[in-house]
Amino acid sequence: MRAPAVFRLGRVEGMKHRNRWMLLGLVPFVVMVLAFQLAPIVSMLAGSVRGPGGSGITFGHYVKIFESAYYLKAIKNSLLISFYSSLIGIVVGLACAYSITRFTPKIRDRLLMLSNMTSNFAGVPLAFAYIILLGNNGIFTLLFKAWGWDVFAGFNLYSWTGLVLVYVYFQVPLALLLLYPSFYGIRDQWKEAAMLLGARPWQFWRTVGLPMLTPAIFGTLGILFANAMGAYATAYALVGGNYNLLAIRIGSLVTGDVANQPELGSALAVLLAVSTIVAVILNHWMSKRSQRFTAAQASSGQASGQRRASRAKPWRAVKKEAGA
Amino acid sequence: MIKSRAGWSHRALMLLLMVYLLLPLAATLLYGFAKQWQTTVLPESWTFEWFSEMFRDLRFLEALWTSLYLCAISVALSLAVMLPAVFVITVYLPKWETFMKGIVVLPYAVPGVVAAVGLIRAYSGGPIDIAGTAYILIGAYFIVVLPYMYQGIRNSLITVSAVELLHSAELLGASRKRAFVTVILPNIWPGVIISTLLSFSVLFGEFVLTNMLVGGHIQTIQVYLYRRVGESGHLASAIAITYFLFILALSTVLMKLGKKMNGVAEK
User: Would you say A220 and A178 are in contact if contact means Cβ atoms under 8 Å apart?
Assistant: First the structure.
């Protein structure tokens, strides 16, 4: 009777001992994450509230930002450009995502591959390509001038419209990639049913299709927004320090050629991080929600009245969050 | 009938999208081979001059080499650190996985420019003064590829049912270390190679951190390209296209490997 117990005990201890050995495998990972992820974040947070002369805690840097028209303008520009480029990205992405699901999987995958391929062309090379196309001496700029197309004469790549144009370029493939799977959640039977009941295509999309896609749309919007807020290389290569964007301002404050104000830079960086983290959290919530729906749809082909009621509730919540 | 009509408009839309997405690429390619290109749709005359000039440019070759070895070192380091860590977490500490996911998703949510601010603050001056050196860059790169490495390794561990494999190996008398090296590693290898290549291509295109952390001291291919853009458009085009072709080759290998792996998994 005793022997097995002893044996078991020995085994358990052996396990524990061995497991402790195993934990050693985590040490390098913990060290690296502490050193290069957590320490910088802590240092940045500390720096953003560091008092003048390096002592005490102050929120003066944040106050300074919110009192300065210059930095407020940078924040506003960044928010607007991210918002517009994400919105255009979503609209184009939605249309294209719907189209792409109409093709056979083989062609669809090829198209997706092509579109993903272009996303390697982000940052400096992308800005450069647009300078070749639409810059001051760009191919199209010169062509339009030669052809006498005045419509584009007012266009300036190094301005707000130009930046939005370039941002949209890298938002569209991302939106497409994130959105197209959710179109497979909309069954052809529903469309047929709606049409049998006399709905026109636009009515189907307004009342059934788009509401189904709402979580995916808002989730993707979050990712696109964070993507645009954090984008630095493209804007930096395109307009240098000349255009007032949050990411650019942070860069020049910290590595600055003019005046080094690391504390102010830290405070701005914290604000930027907060905005992107909120956007990513939005995406997380929404993708959970959209998964729940797809799961609910998959489990019940014959949605009962009760199910439908419970399904209707989260939609209202979505709308509320969107309105806020 | 409705279907065929829809097909037509969908085809048109896709064509439009592809033209839109490929136009900047095509323009860069043509510009790299163009000798004279003004006020015509296509270049008036062609030349290989820019490409040959690029390969004769020592600074380009140096930047390429710097990029290659910095990315290789960072990815190798990441592999060495992440393989055991993800293995231990997935197999022995599954409770910690949520926590891990939080850590791993953070680099994805925090923009590069913010990370650079933190890194500069933490490592310029103070006890560890490594600002402007390759060390800080390698550390930053490690964090950049964290999500890709973690996801890749974890997914392959789960696909091959690492826990069951390990138990069977132990049941047959293999020591844990031996089981890891001879059973688990060969099985997850294809997935690991994919995340390695993916990480490599991500790092190869990295600009923000590189420029902010070590831009003045170390020139990677991206920093070099940025410097050249202002000088000669044609030369910069040649560089951009070469860079793009390299990344393209890398992702083709990636995709082939991915397909092969899926094929194996299906069998």
Answer: yes
Closest CA to B201 of B131, B144, B155, B123: B144
Residue A218 Cα to chain centre, angstroms: 10
Q: Is B111 part of any domain?
A: yes
Of A123, A266, A269, Cβ closest to residue B222: A123
Residues in chain A closer than 8 A to B236 (CB atoms): 128
Domain-embedded: residue B160: yes
Neighboring chain A residues of B6 at a CB cutoff of 8 Å? 102
Does some domain include residue B52? no
Instruction: Residues A60-323: name the CATH superfamily.
Output: MetI-like (1.10.3720.10)
CB neighbours (10 Å) of residue A100?
24
Q: Are A174 and A89 in contact (CB under 8 A)?
A: yes
Instruction: Taking residues A228-251, report their average pLDDT.
Output: 87
Facing B122 at nearest CB: one of A43, A124, A143: A43
Give the range of the structural domain holding residue B2, as residue numbers without chain letter.
Answer: 1-47
Q: ipTM of this complex > 0.90?
A: no
Mean pLDDT along residues A161-173? 90
Q: What is the pLDDT of residues B58-103, one digit of tens each?
A: 888 899 999 999 999 999 999 999 998 998 888 888 888 888 888 8
Non-local (6+) Cβ contacts of B32 within 8 A are B50, B51, B234, B237, B238, B240, B241
Q: Is residue B53 part of a domain?
A: no
> B109 and B168: one domain?
yes
Residues of A in Cβ contact (< 8 Å) with B143: 32-33, 36-37
A18 contact B CB<8A? yes
Q: Confirm or reject contact between A195 and chain B (CB < 8 A).
A: no
Distance from CA of A320 to the nearest CA of B (A): 24
Phi and psi of B45, rounded to 5°? -145, 155
Same domain, yes or no, for B151 and B103?
A: yes
CA distance B215 to B212: 6
Read off the CATH number of the domain in which B191 is found.
Answer: 1.10.3720.10
pLDDT digits (tens, 9 = 90+) for B165-209: 888 888 888 887 888 888 888 888 888 888 888 898 889 888 999
Q: Does A41 touch chain B (CB under 8 A)?
A: yes
Q: CB within 8 A of B93, min separation 6: which ones?
A: none
Task: Identify whether residues B31 and B93 lie together within a single domain.
Answer: no
Domain count, chain B: 2
Rounded to a whole number of angstroms, the distance between the first and last alpha carbons of chain B is: 39
Per the CB < 8 A criterion, the answer to whether A253 and A261 are in contact is yes
User: Is A232's CB within 8 Å of B111's CB?
Assistant: yes
